[in-house]
Specification:
- This protein is of the alpha+beta class.
- The protein folds into 3 domains: about 100 residues, no CATH class; about 210 residues, no CATH class; about 130 residues, Diaminopimelate Epimerase, Chain A, domain 1.
- The chain is built from 21 helices and 14 strands.
- The strands form 4 sheets. The protein has a 6-stranded mixed sheet.
- Strand 7 and strand 8 form a beta hairpin.
- Helix 20 crosses helix 21.
- The longest helix has about 35 residues.
- The protein starts with a helix and ends with a helix.
- It comes from Stercorarius parasiticus (Parasitic jaeger).
- Belongs to the CDC45 family.
- GO terms for molecular function: chromatin binding; DNA replication origin binding; single-stranded DNA binding.
- Pfam families: CDC45.
- Its main location: nucleus.
Length: about 525
């Protein structure tokens, strides 16, 4: 938006949550507009087939969903992909998947009648052999093409965050501002919070952004050039991997962060004891830990990070320190990038109805601009509610053994009437819940095989229509490449059982399903993946 405003370009903004809304929005606007910019949607399907646009319509796609559909990659005219040059796409070669329809028409036999019958027969036999060879080659090529495409499209994963790609674009055009840089940081942190990218990718991208941060936020320390206190400053720092702890109490944050609660197994009595031991080891009085972080004693806060890290190492939490950025507005407002991510995600999926669907999107968008701190604080409150709900649900799922091993994957289903179940009918909340649950389950189970399994989770979506929302997530292992094979598996299982499913989400691994078709769908999925 900032880039359009720089150039005084008029545009219309339409938030869409799935393929159906994208099609509807396109049909509504296709007569007035010729250029469409798709952000975080559209790369992983054959767009021209879905939308059937006119010849003079152009699409610019900036989307982190991978793999990118091959038709979009090789379409030179109507589809322009915005991708970073060093992104490794592994797209199959053009000749392996497309071939020009050769003139398969057999050459009509136009021999002169004067030739010998034996000559005719020989030529006819040669033709037959040649045609058979051509057909065989074509069949072999088709089979190879299927194989190549299957290998390419089998796993779903995420590339560089779209926010970073957009910032790169602004930088190349010399229009990059500090605000844009901050949005790029939030985009990257979102991928990390939602566990969409590997640790390696995160650290590499943080390094790229760090160079920009020092370029933008560098001021000489002498009196004349120092920044006025109202300005916005971005700083790189090593922070604690504790959710929202600067806006919460340290105790609440330790209890509701998936990393610490899974490591300490806080759903058990034993785990609660370990938490007390952990706090005692740091020498922090309970009274201090349970009050708001802002109100803690300054003397304790000064070297709090070092104290926590030291004790965390003793308790087996070696990755409590994480590279991130923070932002200061003026004197008292300081936020870390993950605070913003939690707040905007909660505003996006707020379940309290206030007007049309798009209101939430507009609110979340507003919370990103620095004039709207009240919206941001509202988002932070919602995020705390959401994290508490996730943690309680995880605890109850583990204590009541709701996570069942189905053979090739683990399965957990939330029943109607569970507390906060409405919250988990939304895709991002459900994905966060399933990732937290899988982490905690891996820490709690003694079964070695179960530690390596992916998880499929369902929650009630719409009780009146009798639908559930189902999500599949990859296994929780150190070396996991975050690639997800459930998208293709869900499609196949639905086809083979004629289940009534809706593959409407931009993430292929999230689907909607009729409740009564659930058991046959799961059976098909088990036999597919076994």
């Amino acid at each position: 938006q900032a880039l359009f405003q720089c150039d005084h370009v008029q545009y219309t903004l339409v938030p869409v949550s799935g393929w159906q809304e994208l099609e509807t929005a396109f049909l509504e606007h296709k007569d007035q507009f010729k250029y469409f910019v798709l952000i975080n949607c559209g790369a992983n399907v054959d767009l021209l087939e879905i939308l059937q646009p006119e010849e003079d319509t152009f699409f610019f796609i900036c989307d982190s969903h991978r793999p990118i559909n091959v038709v979009n990659v090789y379409n030179d005219t109507q589809i322009k992909l915005l991708v970073k040059q060093d992104d490794d796409l592994d797209v199959p070669a053009y000749d392996d998947i497309f071939r020009d329809e050769e003139d398969e028409e057999e050459d009509s036999e136009n021999e002169s009648d004067g030739s010998e019958p034996s000559e005719k027969r020989r030529r006819f036999e040669e033709n037959v052999i040649e045609r058979t060879m051509k057909r065989r080659q074509r069949r072999e090529w088709e089979a190879r093409r299927q194989e190549i495409l299957f290998d390419y499209e089998q796993y779903e994963y995420h590339g560089t965050s779209s926010a970073m790609v957009m910032f790169d674009l602004a930088w190349v055009m010399s229009k990059d501002l500090n605000d844009m840089l901050w949005w790029a940081i939030v985009g990257l942190t979102d991928q990390w919070v939602q566990d969409k990218i590997t640790q390696m990718k995160y650290v590499t991208d943080i390094g790229i952004l760090q160079r920009h941060v020092s370029r933008h936020n560098h001021r000489n320390e002498d009196e004349e050039n120092s920044l006025s206190i109202d300005c916005m400053r971005i700083a790189f720092e090593y922070d604690l991997r504790l959710a929202l702890y600067q806006h919460w109490s340290l105790y609440e944050s330790l209890c509701n962060t998936s990393y610490t609660s899974a490591s300490l197994k806080l759903w058990s009595v034993q785990g609660q004891k370990r938490l007390q031991e952990f706090l005692a080891d740091m020498g922090l009085p309970l009274k201090q830990v349970k009050q708001k972080f802002n109100s803690m004693d300054m003397s304790l806060k000064e070297n709090l990070r070092e104290m926590i890290e030291e004790s965390a190492n003793k308790f087996g939490m070696k990755d409590l320190r994480v590279q991130t950025f923070s932002i200061h507005f003026g004197f008292k407002n300081k936020f870390s990038a993950s605070d913003i991510v939690y707040a905007t995600a909660s505003l996006m999926e707020n379940i309290e109805k206030e007007g049309p669907e798009t209101t939430n999107f507009i609110k979340a968008l507003d919370s990103l601009s620095r004039g709207n701190l009240d919206k941001l604080h509202q988002g932070l409150d919602l995020a705390k509610k959401q994290l508490r709900a996730i943690q309680q649900t995880v605890a109850s799922c583990i204590c009541t053994n709701l996570v069942i091993s189905q053979g090739p994957f683990l399965y957990c289903s939330l029943m109607e009437g569970t507390p906060d179940v409405k919250l988990f009918s939304k895709p991002v909340s459900l994905c966060l819940l399933s990732k937290y649950l899988l982490k905690s389950f891996v820490c709690s189970t003694k079964n070695k095989r179960c530690k390596l399994l992916p998880l499929v989770m369902t929650a009630p979506m719409d009780v009146e229509q009798g639908t559930v929302i189902m999500v599949g997530i990859p296994p929780e292992t150190e070396s996991s490449d975050k690639k997800n094979f459930f998208g293709r598996a869900f499609e196949k299982a639905a086809d083979s059982t004629n289940s009534r499913t809706l593959h409407n989400h931009f993430d292929m691994s999230i689907i909607e399903l009729k409740t009564e078709d659930r058991s046959k769908f799961l059976d098909a999925l088990i036999s597919l993946l076994s």
